[in-house]
Each structure stands twice: as C-alpha cells, then as structure tokens.
Amino acid sequence: MSENTKPLAKALIFAGTSISHEDAAKVLDATYWPPISRGDIEKAILQGYATIGIIDGIFFSRAAVAHKEIIRAIKEGITVVGGCSMGALRASELDVHGMTGVGQIYEWYRDGVIEDDDEVAVATNPDTFEPVSNPMVNIRETFKAALKLDIIKDDEFRRITELAKRTHYTERSYFGITKGASREGIIPEDKANELLKFCIENERNIKREDALLVLEKIKQILTE
C-alpha cells in the first residue's frame, strides 16, 4: 500500500451504467464512483482503498483504464475484481496478473467466445451514465431466448443477430433492429412486432446479472 495511506473499511466500486449506484448499494455497502476511466485507479490508491470492483468503464469518449494501472494496484496489495462490462474485459486480460474475474461475460472474453469491445459498449446519458442503447451481449442472448420459444427460426436468428452486430453500438436498440429486420425482408412485419414485444418484456440482461455477481463476490471477500 502507498505510504501514508490507511485502507478504508469499504470497497470502491466503479459502476453506474449496467447497474445504478442506488441498486448496487442495496446489495453491497461500499463507495460508488462513476464508470472508470484513465487515472481513476491512481486516485483510488491514494485514498487507500484495499478492494476495488470494476463493473462499468469509459470506452471511447475518454481514455479507458490502462492495464498498467490495474497491475500497479494489484502489486500494491489491492484486490481488484472485475466483471460485466469494462471489468470483464480487463479481468479477461489481467487474470494472469492477479485480477479476479467473475460472471458470464468475463468467461466469454476469457475463452474467446466474444472478442470485440463493442459487445458490452452502450451509449449513455452523459449526466447520469444510464444506457440509452442496448448492449450486444444482451441482444444476442435475448434473441436466443426468442429462438428457443420458436418466435424466430434458426436462419432468422442468424440474420437478425448479424444485423445487430453491423449496427453501431450507439444505435443498437430492439426497436431499431426489429424494424430493420422487417425492412430488409429478414422477417415479416407482424413477426418483427411480436419479436419486439418479446424483447421488451423478456430481455436477458446479462450485464446486470454479472454486475450483481461482482458485488456478491466483493461482499464475500470483505467477510472472509
């Protein structure tokens, strides 16, 4: 730990997009900061946090948290846990250096099932950090659920998922994708409307599920 610092009792969590600070605080009593960006780890080290959780982070609008920042924190004895979004990306790259990864998305990145940053990226409200688009990891799993219920067929699932992947992450929405699928002749309009209704009412929110797993993992660490 850095000189003249004393570890705080609470962990520090970077979140706000995949799960709100209010909802997260219901699960874990901790300090919550906005999605992580370059330089935030240094601030956390200086403030003496002994446990850091990375859920959400800045991808493209500002410099993302660097690998070397996290490695430095780990070398100073800080426990760093990641999952869900930026946390899953960095954990999949740095678990060999001691970062702890949790959740489905972390495992997908670790195992090479997904590779692109845009799989978890969303457009956000600049004031609240709330998402205003849907992440690809959620979209794909929601379409898989629709496939299992025979709302769409195998080829339709493949083509709609490809359409979603081609769409820029800032413009991905169930409304836009289903309407685009109808416009391109992938599915008829009535099926597009049925699929949209299903997605709105039954979204597989993988990112929120993994955010909760990060919080639960840190809660476990703090009570050990």
Automatic annotation (TrEMBL):
InterPro entries associated with the record: TfuA_core
Domain of life: Archaea
Residue ranges annotated for the TfuA-like core domain, each copy included: 56-173
Pfam families named in the record: TfuA (PF07812)
Name by which UniProt lists this protein: TfuA-related McrA-glycine thioamidation protein
The species this protein was found in: Methanolobus mangrovi
